[in-house]
Amino acid sequence: MPNNAFPYSKSNHYGPSPATSTSLTRRALTVGAFAILISAFAAQAFAETTPEKFVPFNQFLDSTRSATASDVLSRPESKVRDPAALEEMRQAILNRYQGVEVSHSFVLDGEHYDCVPVNQQPSFRTYGIKAAAEAPPAELISRHQASADEDATRAKSLVSEQPIDAAGNSTQCEASTVPLLRTSLETMSHFATLKQFYQKLPGNAVRAAQAHEFDDPSVASHKYSFTYQYVNNLGGNSNLNLWSPYVNTAEGEIFSLSQEWYVGGSGAATQTEEVGWVVYPAMFNGSEKAHFFIFSTPNDYATGCWNNSCNDFVQVADSGLLGATWNNYSSSGGPQYEISAEYYLYQGNWWLGYDGTWIGYYPGSMYKGGQNTKYAQIIEFGTEGVGTTIWPPEGSGAFSSKGFGYAAYQRNLYYINTAGTSIWDSLSPDEPSPACYTITGPYDSTGAWSRYFYEGGPGGKGC
Hints:
By secondary structure, the chain is an alpha+beta fold. It has a domain of 316 residues. Helices cover 17% and strands 28% of the residues. Strands 3, 6, 11, 12, 13, 14, 16, 17, 19 and 20 form a 10-stranded mixed beta sheet that branches. A hairpin with a 6-residue loop joins strand 7 and strand 8.
C-alpha cells in the first residue's frame, strides 16, 4: 500500500504499515509458495469429490423430462417435499429453456454454463423485451476504481486460467451469446420447494434482528456483521476480500457470504440489489468454495432469486460467470485476494459491474414503480450467515479485530449520489451478534484503501 494509505501502530491490526509492507510481502511470498502446494492437494481432493463431468445440453433436458418422483425423492441428498414440489421444479426448468438454442456448453468447477443468443435468454421473455438496453459508458465503471496494491491482488477467474474445460469445450461464449448458469433438478432437489431454492430471507441487514424464516422451520435465522449509511443513491462499489469459510452442513449450517446491499422502500415494499461471494453447499452441489452471486427483490423477498435462476437478470457480457468460483482465495497470514463489484442505476436499469466490466442489468420494470425505480435509500456492506443451532464462520472466520491478512475486509467504498457523482461512504457499524461476528472500523484513508473496514468472525453456538 502507498505510504499514506492509512495510519497504523504496533498496537493494532488495522492494516500493514509502510514499515512492515516489505516484510509482509516477503512473508506472503513464502506462505504463498506453501499455499500453492496445499492448494494443489486441495484441488486434487476436490476433483475427486466433484468430478468435472460434462453433460451436453440436450441430454440435460432429456433427463429433466424423464426424471421420476420415485427416483429423485429417494436419493439420500434429496430434500424435495413431495412429488408436487418436484413437478413445480421440473416445469420451472423446462420453462427457463423454452425456445433457447444453445451454441455450446462447458463446465467449470462442477457448474455448467450454456451459451445462448443474447436475445434468447429467458429474461427477454420475462420482461417482454426485444433488445438489451445500452450499457453505461465504460469510463463510468472506473470512476474511483482502485487497482489492487502490493498487499492484495485481484482474484483470477477460472476462464482466464482454463480456456478449455476437461471435456475439450471452450469456456468462452461466441459473439452475441452469453453464458447462462444451468439450473438442474440435481441442484434444486437440495431444497424442499422451488420457492426455497429461489429465496434469500431476510436479506436486509438493517432488519437483521427481525424474525424471518424459510418455509422449512428447521432453518433458524440469519446473522450479520455489517456497516450501513442512510443516503439516497444510484448504487455504489466495494472491493471485497475473497475467502472460503467452511460451512458445516452436517451441523445445520446453511451458507456464509460477504456482500453489498442497495436498499429502497420499507416493509412489504422493500427492494434491493445485492452482489458478493457466498459459500452455499446446497446451492452449488456440495462445493465449499466461495461463488460469485447476485440477488435482487422487488417485494421484500417474496420473490427474487440467486444468480438469475428465475430469469430476472439480463446479461450482455460474454464474461462474468454468475455462480462461478475463482482460482485464488485469501489465506490467513498469507496472500490476500479480492474482487470489485458495483451497481449503478443507469437509464432506469440497475447495472452490475464486475472487475471493470458491465455484466448486465436488472430491468427497471422488475420494480413495478417501487422505490428503486427512482433511487435506493440505504447502502450496506458486510457478512451474512444462516444456521439452525450453530452458525458458520463469516468472512475469513477470524474476528474483525485481527486486521489485515487475517480478517476479511471491504475497501474502496463509495456510493453514487442522485446527481451521478461518486461520493466516499460515511458508514456506521452494526454488530447484532457480537459474540460471533464483529466489525472493526470503518476507517477513512487515502490512496488504494480510501474507505474500508474489517468484518466477520468464527460463528458457533449462541449467536
